[in-house]
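Loading example: each entry is read as two labelled lines plus one structure line.
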Amino acid sequence: MLRIPCPWCGLRDESEFRYRGDAGRPRPAAEAGLDAFNTHVYERDNPRDWHTEWWLHIAGCRRLLRVVRHTLTHEIRSVEAASQPQGAERGR
Amino acid sequence: MWRLLREGLRGQQGWTRAWSKATPRPRYRVLIVGGGGHGLSTAFHLASEHGIRDVAVLERGPIGLGNVGRNTTIIRSNYFHPDNIRFYELSLTLWERLERRLNFNAMVSQRGTLNLFHTEAQRDLFTRRANQMRLLGVDAEAVDTSGIRRLVPLADLDNGRYPVLGGFLQRRGGTVRHDAVAWGYARAASAAGVDIIEHCEVTGLRISGSRVSGVETPGGFIAADTVCLAVAGHSSHLAAMAGLKLPIESHVLQAFVSEPVKPLLDVVLTYGAGHFYISQSDKGGLVFGGAIDGYNTYAQRGTLPMAEEVAAAAMTLLPPLARLKVLRQWGGVMDMSMDGSPIISKTPIEGLVLNGGWCYGGFKAIPAGGLTTAHLIAHGAPHPAAAHLDLGRFAAGRTVDERGVGPSPYLH
């Protein structure tokens, strides 16, 4: 069981959240071309390491959170609101 | 027969190794990274179909402890997409001939796979799927509730929440003993001249220009003309060593086994109001599983929320299971591809071939996956049954979207 410290609700079980995937994929500019969009839509870094990812606190405050979590140990290093500019403690 | 009797009396001391313990040579024509089902099957088909015996399979651990020994052992070809039906049907026909081919008892049991539906919309979808299969000459039949009651007397079809309206049955589907698949292919590949090298982790891929020239291991560099990655679960990790980014996320899928009981379920049963599938092994244990846990992970262990969901599905469909204890639970790491279909393909690096992206479907695909990957390596062009599984399909916009719900690694 993952326990995610939500900045608004405190420490909560993973079952309150919905995973929304890799948060390190900025959307390319509209005219960036097909390759950039192929990378954005389909390709993933998928690291065996620290991973910056979205978790939606769907059964809590319903805020979207940016979580830095290790994909082998499941240790969570940081949790912040999606609206915040990405913290200095980035995974990648 | 006499051998079994003699060894039984002598304490099973006289058996020889099923495959020889090879030490790596400095150079091979083909190096296969990953000694799981697909790696071993690819090696076997290279040696037996194409006469390419200068082949080594490198396995990080011992043979049989990866995903080939972590699945729920189901074989079937009841897919939705015509290209996938053809591919998995090829695999099913190869399963039907596997034991004669390998001269090894893999306990192939075509006990039938029965998929249940619970809504009218699901009935339409399954009927379409069954009709598509029949158009391609694959067996599928509709079963009404009285038929289901005969096949699975244990199931609670009239439960208040998700009553069962019917099902569709593929009689040729079933189960295979997964350990025997790993051992059988390893034995046959070894006998055909393939080197099987256990406890040899690949720590790097050497690229010269735009071509792969070999792999780095703790024991030193091994050169090869072709390197094939067959490491589903860890494909992204290995591909990153060649500077490639794949349309794959790694997720964990759990499986469970109950204590052994007398025969009570003689088909593979899947539940449509949630994700749940169950069969009974020949030892008597009920083998079952559900969906992936749902977030990127390389850890071979699951967490409790999914275990609870699987148990809830088991209880809704088969209430008598409440009396059984779960004996073991484990997790396997899956390559979840972005369209839910596998990848058997050349890569932008010359000489580097990928067999991966298997999602949940890897085990049942082992014979066809190996056959088509070996074809790709030997001929430099895809096998017709797997031509749709190339890596270029994503950029080209011809994804093989098995569920029709768009780019998401949560499919299978």
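The two ends of chain A are 24 Å apart (CA to CA).
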